[in-house]
Amino acid sequence: MADTTSLAAVQRWMQSVILHPTGEDPGHTITASSRLSARERLLVHQHGYRLRLRLLECMPTLHPGSVHLLGQEIFDGFA
Question: Which long-range contacts (CB under 8 A, 24 or more apart) does 62-69 make?
Answer without folding.
Answer: none
